[in-house]
Design a protein that fits this description.
alpha/beta, 23% strand, binds ligand C2E, binds magnesium ion
């Protein structure tokens, strides 16, 4: 019998006992020295394999949730693909909705515990599948296809207790993108790509926060990627231009202003803003575009002034994305002044806001613009939150009533939207705001404006947004005969 005690640099210890077969000769000192060397080598190997195990655990495992991580998801998916079993499975990428509220209400530790209970309960529903953490509140799932409905329903909302038992419950919900494998999949990246696409769709367009991957989704995402990739080059090549839509005094037919609306001149076609603005609004790119449009508009106005042409006040749209920018005022004024455009010829259109923070920013920006002689309008009033506070507390100059208030052609007078229209106009006037109706398409609608005291109209009834040179011609003709 031979024993040896080993201590590692980490203070981990091990006791080794070697037994000799009874019929074997006694170990002498030389044997013992060899054995001691052998034990030391074993100890080093044990240490190494423990470290390898630990590293593997750390690289494949999420300690907080006690589930596999993204690497582990890819590993498992790869194994299923290699076995040729992928057609029996589906995959899902989900993101917990507004989980920060749970963290704020109960503290981070309890938040983590709730999250863990949620993923554990989900994992318990799976036989061969599992839940994996991508990071933060993002997870992936591999599931047997027949479990799809169960998982979908679990992710759409499940009550989880805050503490282990008898405590308040929170309804944990997720945005979830699913893909049901066909058996044709070749790579793990292919599947990951599809569920990542699907979760974006779940967040953006799906009504029930769940989206099952399809080819149309792929095309939409490709379109988005294309816009994102081409945007910077398009700005550099001046592919974006301002079209101008007249604002008309309906008593006289005179053009009293215009709205600058962005168009992308791309490969000989005119691309409307609906196909790129919502995409640019998901990043800061929209701010670049808005400043560019303001600059273009100022340059056009300066040109008209220098040529001695008729000029009217032009409104430019600014996305809400700008509101957090503490230098917004200086930037806007910088562009106007650089082009030497009188402040009273510019109006800034902003839409309603939802959060308190945005509300404060909005108040500061609108007030700041006004004190510098630049007027402001609240755009699309009536389709968002139509907050009366927003009108009362922020010093707007103009209220643009959304077209949804206008009666459709086939509706008689006196319907609800017309009543609302009447009172919105009356309220705007009472508050000292100029009131303009957007989207006026028919004479009947124009009559509604007249009857209800709304003096200014913008819409296809007069003109669509026009290229700068055509708009100049309208200005020269002094507007429309009514
Ligand atoms: P918006 O600011 O409310 O602009 C009015 C939209 O209504 C314009 O659409 C205009 O063409 C359309 N419109 C005008 N008259 C009528 C009508 O009689 N009937 C109907 N059905 N529609 C009418 P457009 O040019 O396609 O722009 C859509 C939206 O894109 C704008 O809505 C605005 O929110 C955004 N947008 C356009 N240019 C810019 C820009 O430079 N920056 C930012 N941030 N947003 C922009
Ligand atoms: Mg507008
Ligand atoms: Mg509008």
């Amino acid at each position: 019998c031979f024993t040896q005690h080993e201590v590692a640099m980490t203070n981990a210890t091990a006791d080794y006992t070697l037994y000799k077969k009874p019929d074997f000769p006694e170990w002498d000192d030389e044997d013992k020295e060899l054995l001691s060397g052998f034990v030391k080598t074993m100890f080093i190997h044990h240490g190494r394999s423990r470290v390898i195990g630990m590293v593997e655990r750390l690289t494949l495992f999420d300690g907080d949730m006690e589930i596999g991580n993204l690497k582990s998801f890819f590993k498992r998916l790869g194994e299923i693909l290699a076995k040729g079993d992928i057609g029996k499975f589906g995959a899902c990428y989900f993101n917990l909705k507004r989980f920060s509220i749970v963290n704020r209400a109960y503290g981070r530790d309890k938040g983590t515990a709730v999250m863990k209970r949620f993923v554990t309960q989900l994992g318990d529903k799976l036989d061969y599948g599992a839940v994996y953490r991508v990071g933060g509140d993002n997870f992936t799932v591999i599931f047997e296809k027949e479990k799809f409905e169960e998982i979908r329903s679990f992710l759409s909302g499940t009550k989880i207790t805050v503490d282990a038992k008898d405590s308040p419950e929170v309804n944990v919900m997720a945005n979830a993108g699913f893909y049901l494998c066909t058996g044709e999949e070749r790579t793990t990246d292919d599947i990951m790509d599809k569920i990542s696409t699907a979760v974006v769709m779940a967040k953006t367009i799906s009504k029930d926060n769940c989206f099952i991957y399809n080819e149309e989704a792929r095309q939409r995402i490709d379109h988005r990627k294309m816009i994102e990739a081409q945007f910077a080059g398009a700005i550099e090549n001046n592919e974006f231009v301002a079209f101008y839509q007249p604002k008309v005094d309906i008593a006289t037919g005179k053009i009293i202003g215009a709205e600058a609306l962005c168009r992308w001149l791309k490969d000989g076609k005119v691309v409307p803003p609906i196909s790129f603005i919502p995409i640019l609004e998901q990043s800061n790119a929209i701010c670049t575009l808005d400043f560019y449009m303001l600059d273009r508009t100022c340059k056009d106005i300066r040109g008209w002034l220098d040529e001695g042409k008729n000029v009217v006040k032009v409104s430019v749209n600014l996305s809400r994305m700008h509101l957090g920018d503490s230098e917004l005022l200086e930037k806007v004024m910088g562009i106007i002044d650089k082009n030497n455009v009188p402040h009273e010829l510019i109006e800034i259109e902003l839409t309603e806001t939802t959060t308190d923070v945005e509300f404060k920013d909005l108040k500061r920006v609108v007030g700041g613009l006004q004190s510098r002689g630049v007027s402001t309008s609240v755009d699309d009033f009536g389709i968002g939150y139509s907050s009366l506070n927003l009108l009362r507390e922020i010093p707007w100059n103009v209220l643009k009533v959304d077209k949804s208030f206008l009666p459709l052609d086939d509706e008689g007078g006196g319907n609800n939207s017309e009543i609302m229209f009447k009172y919105v106009v009356a309220m705007a006037k009472e508050l000292g705001l100029e009131c303009i109706a957007e989207g006026v398409e028919t004479r009947a609608q124009l009559e509604v404006l007249k009857e209800n005291g709304c003096d200014i109209a913008q819409g296809f009834f007069f003109d669509k947004p026009l290229p700068a040179d055509e708009f100049e011609k309208r200005l020269e003709a002094h507007g429309y005969t009514i």
